[in-house]
Predict the 3D structure of the following.
Amino acid sequence: AKGNNLTSYELFNVEMRQTMLEVFELETSLRQALEQQQFILHYQPIVSATSLELLGFEALVRWVHPEKGLISPGKFIPLAEETGLIIPLSEWIFQEACSQMAQWCADFRMASSLKMSINIAAYHFQSPQFLEKIDQILTETQLLGKNLKLEITESLLIKNTDRFLSLVPQLQQRQIEISLDDFGTGYSSLNYLKRFPINTLKIDKSFVDGLDYQKNQADVSIIEAIIHIAQSLGMDVVAEGVETDRQRQQLQQLGCEAIQGYLMSPPLTSEKAREFINRQLSV
Ligand code: C2E
Ligand code: CA
Ligand code: CA
Ligand code: CA
């Protein structure tokens, strides 16, 4: 370069190199994180809206970075998807969540009625070994399919319709259930719902937010409509992001049977989740 005046082309190159370097570094540390087992799962309780009885947990992954501390999935899942590391990461998550659930089932008799919900990434879902790996993990951990629930998004469903329809009988055979996550935020063609044997609709937090103090009458109507649709199609409803008792009461009145959110509990470490199960037993 001539002096300090870089041409836009050179500047572009410098920036490109910087970005590529950052992505490369992150990719390298993500790869190392997998090898060095720097990931952990937290478990957020899902409870009955009326009795507050524990129904299950959603497994949520975190990266315990040696220098940066706890990194949320929103930061590294997209990168893991870009780099293909999402497959080994997802397989680890699946393995870990199933082992944990199997452990609780062995320790607490009531745990055999709980469901462990696992978020499924599109690439993982598309991988040819998806079902084979699930079977392998179920055999190894001796966990039953009925203790498992797969959380998929509308966009995964829309982009992988054929794959989904071919997998469903196999999942049903194993009594593995399916939740449609963040319902109402994606494509939400109500028409496709009736074609897919989905067990549970998860109402997105953005609608639940509007329930507070009637902030948004439209959100109330949307939730009401979602619950009606679910009921008429024989599906359950879980509302996520419930933070206030007022939201819980309204959801309960609207007929939503299950809720998840900070009001009941944030995502918990495995030890804390274990204590949560223990407290259930003593009430
Ligand atoms: P999601 O599946 O919609 O998960 C719910 C998110 O809402 C979680 O964030 C949870 O901690 C947060 N949350 C729960 N209750 C409340 C509440 O009352 N208030 C508020 N403000 N937030 C609440 P998290 O753990 O950061 O996960 C973010 C997203 O990352 C998840 O959204 C999911 O799409 C993805 N993700 C998390 N774990 C996994 C995983 O194991 N595999 C895959 N593929 N994706 C994951
Ligand atoms: Ca989820
Ligand atoms: Ca969700
Ligand atoms: Ca959400």
Remarks:
- The beta strands are 39-48, 54-65, 69-71, 115-119, 148-153, 177-183, 200-203, 236-239, 258-259.
- The mean pLDDT is 91.
